[in-house]
Amino acid sequence: MIESAEDGTLLPGTFAAEHLPPAYPERAARGTAGNLRAWQQEAINLYLERNPRDFLASATPGAGKTTFALRLAATLRGNQTVSQIIVVAPTEHLKVQWADAAARAGIRLNPRYSNNDGLGYGRHYDGVVVTYAQVAMKPVQHRLLTEFTDTLVIMDEVHHGGDALSWGDAIREAYGTAKRRLSLTGTPFRSDEAPIPFVQYAPQGDGSRVSLTDYDYGYGRALADGIVRPVIFMVYAGKMRWQTSAGEEMEARLGEGNTKDVTSQAWRTALDPAGDWMGKVLRAADRRLTEVRGHIPDAGGLVIATDHASAKAYAQMLHEISGEEVALILSDDAGASERIDSYSAGTSRWMVAVRMVSEGVDVPRLAVGVYATSSSTPLFFAQAIGRFVRSRRRGEVASVFIPNVPPLMELAAQLEKERNHVLEGPKSAEEMWDAEAALMAEAEREDKASDDLIEDEFKYQALESDAHFDRAVFDGAEFGGYAEVETEEELDFLGFPGILEPQEVRALLQQRQSRQARRSAQNQGILEHAPEKAEAPGALHRTLKEQRKLLSSLVGMYSRVSGEPHKDIHNELRRSCGGPAVAQASVTQLQKRIDLLRRRLRP
Q1: Ordered DSSP codes for 163-175
Q2: Is the distance from CB of 90 to CB of 71 less than 8 angstroms?
Q3: Residue-by-residue DSSP string for 427-455
Q4: Residue 182 φ then ψ, to 5°
Q5: Burial of 79 by CB count in 10 Å (0-12 exposed, 13-18 middle, 19+ buried)?
Q6: Given 86, 163, 333, 561, which is the most exposed site by the fewest CB atoms within 10 A?
């Protein structure tokens, strides 16, 4: 029997999840409302059924982990299982955010408790909010704060407990005696093998161990429920040119099958504020934001930068593009939290931040993003994209601009993939020796590089960059193709509405792709058999391995005709076309040599 109030509404906490529709878009849109979303009630029911000491709940960013945790905390306080609540958060800014949310749920938490306060935090509070770094500094004090009172410890984004070996040890020491521990994460994995405190790992047949999640609510299910926004990735490529630390001039296009080193340097060149690539992408993103604000007037945009210097430069560029002041969020700035709050409550267009807005910060109006950082770990990417998926009403769409580099393309295509944290099995003595030798060699190279830097007249320098729209990625599928910036072809993909259902997004992208292909075919005088995608003139499709093999074959042919040794031909090609030796050359540079040899071999 399901209980109801006099007005016929269902009473929260009195019904099973199977009696609920998958989601209530009008309920708890921003957290801690009277009614729970179906997954939140389902997770609470599971917890109360098991009554565990440790519980790990994974829910995609924007799904409402805070609401779930605080409602459960209120339930455990109400039935006198616990009397004290301690929340451990990743950042100082989140301490205040947690305390505000707790107040709305009827729980009074002190976000200003410091290690200097000892064991006293105020009799009128039900507990405190602290950071992982704070606990790591005085774990014994936090253990004493916990062990003399029946305490529920909520660890927000618990994977941070493994950020350093000392942190993991400190968290275990501080909360090893807690009566209940609730671990929360939107990304239940790490990019290393540091074990996450209080998380269970199941042994696998290969000797590795995989983290076990007690309740999981992934992006795919949340998207189907209408709780999070669909994300469209706007992918931009372009031609890059730079000088390496060895003095070699390099040239490559983003998205080509280059070596990791060449790809990394081309990516770095693209993100250089002095080049044209970032300027064109920021203008495209601002155009997209204007389209979205036609349907969502307060929609905002966020640029995630790699470092402070780049962030400041991007903010200046956006100020010139948009004509508005830009909120600049730097991690070492004492006023950063206040600026985030001010931006979140306002209606201004852009915010630029260095990493600190990548996790946990709730700015629901963010709808357009520019991923302008060189970080490519699955953990950081998932956290960053999580800033844009928080939905306030059904139909909102997020657009994130990314460079066409393989690691990001793979992560964008696998947005819905659920990941677990894996601890590798024991290595053999030979593997351990190889790993140690590799570390030693790397250390020696770094030391030598430091010494050489003093005398070396060369250093890495971005020389030139250009951008073009490459494709849109949605739900793992690709749409559209090559388009110059500020052309009709690009605007086809920047100009669709900001309010669409997921199925409407796919249909509209397919429609825009077909229109782009027809226009491209007409421009080329080909009205029948229009291509599925518009491609750049002279687009390269070969892999790096294929390029090298073809070049070697052509050099052999030219050697037989001219009588010159292979080595001399390669050296002459380098002098004529520029760039390093074949092993270090990019696809673009190899193609220049191939084209030159083909011209020479023509009868």
Answers
A1: SSHHHHHHHHHHH
A2: no
A3: PPHHHHHHHHHHHHHHHHHHHHHHHHHHH
A4: -115, 115
A5: exposed
A6: 561
What would the pLDDT profile of 56-69 be if each residue is shown by its tens digit? 999 988 888 999 99
Tell me if residue 1 falls in helix, strand or coil. coil
- Count the Cβ atoms, other than its own, within 10 Å of residue 444: 10
pLDDT: which is higher, 408 or 589: 408
Of 14-23, 452-461, 566-575, the poorest mean pLDDT is in 14-23
Instruction: Return the number of other C-beta atoms located less than 10 Å from residue 256's C-beta.
Output: 25
Take residue 597 and report the two structure tokens written for it.
Answer: 């040899």
Tens digit of each residue's pLDDT (9 = 90 or more) over 548-575: 888 887 888 878 878 888 888 888 888 8
Q: Are 137 and 115 in contact (CB under 8 A)?
A: yes
C-alpha Rg value of the chain to the nearest Å: 27
Q: Which of 409, 313, 311, 301 is nearest to 363 (CA)?
A: 301
> Residue 60 is encoded by which pair of tokens?
């995609």
Tokens read off for 478: 């690709």
Tell me which DSSP letter residue 162 carries: G
Question: DSSP E strands: which ranges in 65-168?
Answer: 84-89, 109-110, 127-131, 151-155
Instruction: Measure the CA–CA gap between 289 and 494, rounded to whole angstroms.
Output: 9
Both tokens assigned to 278: 């970032």
Residue 253 near residue 239 (C-beta atoms within 8 A): yes
φ/ψ of 555, rounded to 5, equals -60, -40
Q: What dihedral angle (degrees, nearest 10) is formed by the CA atoms of 157, 301, 369, 269? A: -110
Distance CA 132, CA 130 (A): 7
Q: Please report, for residues 449, 462, 465, 580, 593, the alpha-carbon distance to residue 588 in angstroms, rounded to integers and kept in the order given.
A: 28, 17, 14, 12, 9
10 Å CB burial of residue 424 (0-12, 13-18, 19+) is exposed
Which segments within 437-536 are labelled E, that is strand?
A: 461-465, 468-474, 477-479, 483-484
Structure confidence by residue, pLDDT tens digits, 31-41? 444 589 999 99
Judge contact between 174 and 128, C-beta under 8 A: no
